[in-house]
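Subgroup meeting minutes
Present: P.N., E.W., G.H.
Scribe: E.W.

1. P.N. recapped why we're keeping a running log of single-chain structure predictions: easier to compare across weeks, and new members can see raw inputs and outputs side by side.
2. G.H. added today's entry (131 aa).
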Amino acid sequence: MIGYVTVGTNDLEKAARFYDAIAAEMGVGRMMEFETFIAWGKWDGGAGIAATKPFDGNAASVGNGVMVALEAKDREQVQRLYDIALANGGSCEGEPGPRGEPDENGMLFYAGYFRDPDGNKLNAYLMDKVG
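Output recorded in log:
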C-alpha cells in the first residue's frame, strides 16, 4: 500500500501554492511541513503527496515516465483539478476526456493530464461507467 508519493521541487513556495490548491479541491490540507518538505493528505486517509527539495542538495529534476495519478470523484472534479492546476502555474499535458475504449464491464478511463510548476507530471482520473 502506498503511503505517499514525493515529487522534487526547486521552489518550495511555488510548489506549495500549486499543491495547496489541488489538495483543497480534494478535501485535504497539509499534514506535515518542514523547511524543505511539505506533505498533503490525511493521517488516517489514503495515499498523500509531498513536495521536497532534494536531500542531496542537487537540483530537482523530472523523472521520465514518472506520474502521480489523483483519483477524482467525478468528471466535473477531473475538470476542476485540471483547471486549478493550470491556474496555479501548471501546464497542460492533455485536456480532460475519455482515454481508450470501455472495458468489458462498460467502464471507461477518464483523465486530464498536467504538470506542476517544476515539470512533474500528474493526472486527475476516474473509472467511469459509460452511458
